From TrEMBL:
Belongs to the metallo-dependent hydrolases superfamily. DHOase family. Class I DHOase subfamily. Catalyzes the reversible cyclization of carbamoyl aspartate to dihydroorotate. Its cofactor is Zn(2+). Residues 3-256 form the Amidohydrolase-related domain. This is Dihydroorotase. Pfam families: Amidohydro_1 (PF01979). GO terms for cellular component: cytoplasm. PANTHER family: ALLANTOINASE. One of its GO terms (molecular function) is allantoinase activity. GO terms for biological process: purine nucleobase catabolic process; pyrimidine nucleotide biosynthetic process. Keywords: Hydrolase, Metal-binding, Pyrimidine biosynthesis. PROSITE patterns: DIHYDROOROTASE_2. The keyword Metal-binding applies.
Length: 267
């Protein structure tokens, strides 16, 4: 796949997981998984595949994009590979830089994601990776599920959470307001950087560019209410959270898709 993609100079997007190590795991392998009696999923399951895929990218000279990086070891491997000139980019999700495996203690299946929520140490590494440019994309990893797939025992529930409606608020709350990223840096990781990875002329405000625009207030506080989501699915662990930073209007293809400037309580 890497050799074929190189012909067109497009990236291969890799979900890095060694099934021999993660097989059957439902959360991060560590103290919390042991205490809860849930099968753990070690960070090594991600790290060994990150290492393998980057070695293949180096061998072929191809572009590689690593999806939803979750652990400190992966960040360090990617940083070292980029320093060696390997053509690798990587992304992180808002839930991975916000929640730790401690969130699983309530057995809320909305915290069950792939890769799993890791530790506070991993979050610190993800933040540093965002800060120094090792992780240049923030992706939602939006994965809607209905109640029949989530309202189950933790081990039986499906992986994934909805991410579109909380991504901006979480990124502003966790990264901008805590000084991890400046506002231009944050917005680039949500817009122009992912477009650049995919070779798309998107994510910029310019005459003739696609009129896909989000108007937001980085200071506006709002409370997450899954019942007001526009998504048909409600599988979010952030219900009830207070976030600082709110999308007020979205324009897609020049048409207003959402407008709550006059009524911010509308989701």
């Amino acid at each position: 796949a890497l050799e074929y993609a190189r012909i067109f100079d497009i990236p291969v997007i890799s979900h890095c997981e060694d099934l021999n190590l993660s097989g059957g795991g439902v959360m991060h392998e560590g103290l919390v998984s042991t205490e809860l009696g849930l099968k753990g999923w070690p960070a090594a399951a991600e790290e060994v595949m990150v290492s393998r895929d980057m070695a293949l990218a180096e061998l072929t000279g191809s572009r590689l994009h690593i999806a939803h990086v979750s652990c400190a070891g992966s960040v360090q491997l990617i940083r070292q590979a980029r320093e060696r000139g390997i053509r690798v980019t990587a992304e992180v999700t808002p839930h991975h830089f916000t929640l730790t495996d401690e969130a699983v203690r309530g057995f809320d299946a909305n915290t069950k994601v792939n890769p799993p929520l890791r530790t506070a140490e991993d979050i610190r590494a993800l933040e540093e990776g965002l800060r120094d440019g090792t992780l240049e994309v923030i992706a939602t990893d939006h994965a809607p599920h209905d109640l029949t797939e989530k309202d189950l025992e933790y081990a039986q529930a499906s992986f994934g959470m909805v991410g579109l409606e909380t991504a901006l608020g979480l990124a502003l709350e966790r990264l901008y307001h805590r000084g991890i990223l400046s506002l231009p840096q944050l917005l680039a990781r949500l817009t122009v950087h992912p477009a650049r990875v995919l070779g798309l002329d998107l994510g910029r405000l310019a005459v003739g560019a696609p009129a896909d625009v989000t108007l937001f207030d980085p200071e506006r506080r709002w409370q997450v209410d899954v019942n007001a989501f526009r998504s048909k699915s409600k599988n979010s662990p952030f219900h009830g959270w207070s976030l600082r930073g709110m999308a007020l209007m979205t324009i897609v293809g020049g048409e207003i898709a959402m407008d709550r400037r006059e009524n911010p309580e509308r989701r």
